[in-house]
């Protein structure tokens, strides 16, 4: 069974009487351990698609399934709990909590999921080590570089062992070397841990780490490579 499925998904915005088909009849399936990149010009609907896959937006038509569970059948509170345990998300702005240390920021996901036990703490340390942050665990986000902050956000998206990891432009603020390092580590972790990963990126060099590249244009998938 695919970890993540979209069936004929559509999202339409209405702006000053104009209809914008941000996502227009998209279907896709992503298997465990598969890392997929979503590319496309500005305004083609990538962020909207990611928000639909994350259950942050409701489609106007079609359905999203995660591990076979159709999101639209869940009540609001059920959906929130389901998302929390099944999805890891990194945003363009990394959204770290400024007054928590690196370790505490990552452990926050465990705390929210009721998984802050010895295993969870060990996983936090292992992940931060893997992301070259073992000597930064007790620093605040403001004491880190942009690349280090992005890596903390990646640790936070993986630590609670979600089946899906969604990353929106995880390299937007990084120089080329750092960007390669961040995306290759993300790809390795997704492969090793058998998660389904989707990354939005403008950068074809970053998409080279993906198993599959989906191209969006005007809300549609145009080709696959
Ligand atoms: N809340 C909204 N209300 C109205 N229109 C919106 C809204 N959010 C997005 N859109 C429109 O939907 C379309 C898709 O936007 P989206 O942000 O998903 O594209 P994108 O491919 O992620 O773009 P970018 O690469 O610039 O981030 C655009 O035409 C955008 O203007």
From TrEMBL:
InterPro entries: AAA+_ATPase, ABC_transporter-like_ATP-bd, ABC_transporter-like_CS, ABC_transpr_LolD-like, MacB-like_ATP-bd, P-loop_NTPase. Gene3D superfamilies: P-loop containing nucleotide triphosphate hydrolases. Pfam families: ABC_tran. Residues 4-225 form the ABC transporter domain. Keywords: ATP-binding, Nucleotide-binding, Transport. One of its GO terms (cellular component) is membrane protein complex. This is ABC transporter ATP-binding protein. It comes from Oscillochloris trichoides DG-6.
């Amino acid at each position: 069974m695919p970890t993540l499925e979209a069936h004929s998904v559509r999202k339409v915005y209405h702006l000053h009487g104009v209809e914008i088909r941000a996502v227009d009849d998209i279907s896709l399936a992503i298997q465990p351990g598969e890392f997929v990149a979503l590319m496309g010009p500005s305004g083609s609907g990538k962020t909207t698609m990611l928000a639909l896959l994350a259950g942050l937006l409701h489609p106007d038509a079609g359905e999203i399934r995660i591990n076979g569970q159709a999101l639209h059948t869940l009540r609001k509170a059920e959906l929130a709990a389901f998302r929390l345990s099944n999805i890891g998300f990194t945003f363009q702005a990394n959204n770290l909590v400024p007054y928590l240390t690196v370790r505490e920021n990552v452990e926050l996901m465990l705390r929210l999921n009721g998984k802050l036990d010895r295993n969870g703490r060990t996983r936090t340390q292992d992940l931060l080590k893997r992301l070259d942050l073992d000597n930064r665990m007790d620093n605040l986000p403001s004491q880190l570089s942009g690349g280090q902050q992005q890596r903390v956000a990646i640790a936070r998206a993986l630590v609670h062992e979600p089946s899906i990891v969604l990353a929106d432009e995880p390299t937007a603020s990084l120089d080329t070397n750092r960007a390669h390092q961040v995306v290759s580590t993300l790809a390795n972790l997704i492969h090793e841990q058998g998660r389904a990963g989707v990354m939005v990126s403008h950068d074809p060099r970053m998409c080279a780490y993906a198993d599959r590249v989906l191209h969006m244009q005007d809300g549609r998938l145009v080709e696959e490579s």
